[in-house]
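Batch queue: ligand-bound targets. Current item pairs a single chain with pyridoxal-5'-phosphate. No template structures supplied; prediction is de novo from sequence plus SMILES. Inputs echoed for audit trail.
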Amino acid sequence: MGEGRLIASTRNVKDLIKPYLARAKPYDFTDVKEGIRLHLNESPYSPPQFVLDAVRSWLEKGNRYPTPDLMERFRSLAADYVGVEPSNIYPSPGGDGGIRQLFYNFLSPGDDVVINNPSYSMYEVYSSAMGMRILKVNLKEDGDRWKEDVNELLRLAKQARIVAIDDPNNPTGSPLLEAKEELIGSLCEETKGLVLIDEAYYEFSNYTVAKMIHNYPNLIALRTMSKAFSMAAMRVGYLVADREIVNALLKVSTPFDIALPGIVAGIAALEAPSYAKRVANEVSENRERLKDSLRRLGLKVYDSVTNFLLVKYKGDLLTPLINRGIIIRKYGTDLYRITVGREGENQKLLTALGEILENSGSK
Ligand SMILES: Cc1ncc(COP(=O)(O)O)c(C=O)c1O
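Prediction returned. Tokens below.
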């Protein structure tokens, strides 16, 4: 055994991991499995045939690094879709890739991150991995929806290196600031650092702050092709931001960060984006029907402008549904998030819930 090997084996590798990363909690992916998947806010439909054809036609070039023009084509199409310039678009592997790049490159350990409670889990995951301090604004339950505590948000924003808001909110499905310019403007002015408005569900909610980046250079909008574009596994998303922010992010990326199938799928999809609107309309109609049926079962269901519904129920729905092959997600002690599935899947869910509530004596 050589001396180098000996030194390496006696070193405690844990000492090489930054203390806050060692302490960070990993995201739990154990419920990502097959079944009737109503827990990840995916589209229940496959990507359209023309997207699949485009990907297939490029796969034999998989031995080559894609030329940067693929990324430039994507930026130009995304810019047209959003109504900004290509220089305002930062393509990323899923919306998550954009969040990660922002958090890892624009923030430092100890910085304050302001988020809502509840909100999309990855803001907290990346903050804890980077040793940032999380400050939470509790959303207020108000009848059939959840509302932003605007005063508290503006108060905490003063010290924030980033304020990250998913609007509409995951998991409540509620619209929050609704791209109202006076609210977005005050938030951008009050915030010490960046304001990230995560519009993952934009095609369902139909409101956006994207064009306001021209008035507020610290504002960033996030979009993804994982939801209404039905491409979650393709890993394509993008940030819309001031070109200075985009240029800085491009310095910590390569033109190949989105794998070939993803960027090609993204281009094909944005060349004919109207299908995403059709998906969003169909899912939204199914959501309203599902909401009414769940309410008829006696459940408390909040209104939603997304592809999922939040239900309040004081009892276990998770286990009896898993036993019937249906996966939903639990939040806290009594909240359940249910993604809108295909018509048949929603029916199976309703039948199962009917039985479960009957057996528990709640009906
Ligand atoms: C609010 C929000 N933002 C971002 C994402 C990231 O999705 P992706 O990385 O697939 O684009 C999700 C996914 O569920 C989400 O709900």
